[in-house]
Amino acid sequence: MAKHKQLTPTTQTQETTQPAISREDELNEMYAAAAALVESAGLDETLDKENEKRFLTEFKLNNPRLARYIGELQPYVVTFPMEYYEQIYRLHGWSTDPENLRKRPGIVGAWTVKLIYDRFPAGMVDELKSRNPRTLSGDLLHKYFQLLTAEGSSLLKEFIEEAIAMMKQCSSWSQFESVFARKCGKSWQTFLFDNSVE
Fold first, then answer.
1. Average pLDDT over residues 47-76
2. Measured between alpha carbons, how far is 50 from 52 in angstroms, rounded to an integer?
3. Which own/partner pairs from 187-193 qualify as long-range (CB within 8 Å, at least 24 positions apart)?
C-alpha cells in the first residue's frame, strides 16, 4: 500500500485593499441606483399605457356596441351614493348605521352587478370581469365603474337613480325585486332564479 503524502493547507493571506470611498461618492451611487429604478418604473408605466391603448383600439374594432361604454381606467371617484346602500339595507331590515354601511357584505356587490351592471348590453359584465381581475385576496383590482366611458358613466348614474327610486317605493326586498323585474322586462321568477347570486 502506498502511503499518501498528507497535504497541509497553506494559508496565504491576500489582502485586497479597496480604495476608500467617500460618503459623498457612496450617496451618489445610491442616488444613481434609485434614479435608475424610478426611470425603469416610468418606462413600465409608459409601456402599460401603450399596451392599454392598443388593447382599446382592438376592442373598439371588435366590440363597437360595448366600446361606447367601456374605456380606459379612470381614477376612483365615489359613484354610488350612500342612499343606494341605505335603501338596500332598509329593504333587508339591516342596521343603517355608518359603520355597518361601510362594511358591506359581498352579496351587496353581487346584487349591484345584477341590478345595475346587468342592465347594460349583453356581454358588458363579462367584459368588465375580464378587464378587472380579482386579487389573491378575492377583491376586485378596481371598481367596475372606473372602466366606463363618459357615456357609460352617464348611463350607470341613470340606472342607480332608477334603482333608488324603485327601492323607495317598496317596503321589502322581494317587493322591490318584483317591481324591478317588471321595469326591466323580466318575469319575476326569471329574475329571482336566473343568475342566482345567493
1. 72
2. 5
3. none
